[in-house]
Automatic annotation (TrEMBL):
Entry-linked InterPro entries: Aminoglycoside_PTrfase (IPR002575), Kinase-like_dom_sf (IPR011009)
Name this protein carries in UniProt: Aminoglycoside phosphotransferase domain-containing protein
Domain annotation Aminoglycoside phosphotransferase: ranges: 40-245
Membrane-spanning intervals of the chain: none
Residue ranges the record marks as coiled coil: none
Domain of life, per lineage: Bacteria
Pfam family, one: APH
Length: 281
């Protein structure tokens, strides 16, 4: 397969209109979700093509993010600029942004990386803020629904999780634009400068939610990385009660999603997240 063969006929036809005779260079697809990510060349320039499958829900959100929220990053050349997009076709094209994934380099252990990531995130969060009276209840309902789906969380743990969620308060919260998957897997580094990719989970949420992945991965045993990140961000948005509620919800979401897609390593991380969240009672 050429790479372009991974796209639907309608997506290939639209791409041919946008970038005639585009040549695939590399497949960057993750493989666990219904999204194809291709690096292509056209007229001497490089682009990234993202195409969603039938079940994809990320391309629409990514296009909305490009059109609404990304200027604080794209204006500095720290995120890929949108060239073409079509919601109905689940297809978008951005300019290629040079760099390597931070996760695959020594920069993943460097405090300077996290200070830059904190600065970038602070600028993103600062764009807008709104109050939502129903956010907490909606998120509780989602977590309870996930516990009804197939998973491998022990029955006793499910009972404990349900009881805790049902007892939580549901205060009004402040929502800001969030990335939704803020971690080194979605940061690029080029000439020691950190940039951002992958906007399929961008949405309005509490700011603290963007620290969730870092807290259970890169910050574990590395207080220097956490301190550098918070120094770049400018404060710590994690109010204790809201942070606990997010940790429990995120642990449930991680475990059930990983089970659904067959990612055993990520599922194990989800079970650890649940155990660690409950251990803080």
């Amino acid at each position: 397969m050429s790479g372009l063969d991974l796209l639907s006929p309608a997506q290939r036809a639209l791409l041919e209109q946008w970038l005639p005779d585009a040549t695939p260079v590399r497949d960057h697809s993750w493989g666990l979700v219904a999204t194809t990510v291709l690096e292509v060349t056209h007229s001497g320039d490089r682009f990234i093509v993202k195409a969603g499958g039938d079940t994809d829900r990320h391309i629409e959100r990514e296009l909305h993010a490009h059109l609404t929220w990304l200027e604080p990053w794209t204006g500095l050349g720290r995120a890929p600029a949108l060239v073409h997009g079509d919601v109905a076709a689940k297809l978008l094209v951005t300019r290629y942004l040079p760099g390597e994934l931070v996760l695959n380099t020594g920069h993943v252990d460097a405090p300077a990386t996290y200070r830059q990531a904190g600065e970038l995130l602070a600028a993103f969060h600062a764009q807008a803020a709104s109050t939502d009276d129903g956010y907490e209840q909606r998120e509780n309902d989602k977590s309870l629904a996930l516990l009804d789906e197939p998973h491998r969380i022990a029955d006793a743990v499910v009972t404990r999780l349900r009881a805790e969620i049902l007892a939580w308060p549901t205060p009004a919260v402040t929502l800001v634009p969030t990335h939704g998957d803020w971690q080194p897997r979605n940061w690029l580094v080029h000439d020691d400068v950190v940039s951002v990719i992958d906007f399929g989970r961008v949405a309005l949420r509490p700011a603290l939610t963007d620290l969730g992945r870092l807290a259970v991965q890169e910050f574990r045993g590395r207080p220097d990385l956490e301190a550098a990140f918070l120094d770049g961000y400018g404060c710590d948005p994690r109010e204790a009660g809201a942070w606990r509620r997010h940790r429990v919800r995120d642990a449930i979401g991680t475990t059930t999603w990983a089970y659904r897609v067959g990612d055993g390593t990520f599922e194990a991380q989800g079970h650890r997240m649940i155990a660690e969240a409950l251990a803080t009672d």
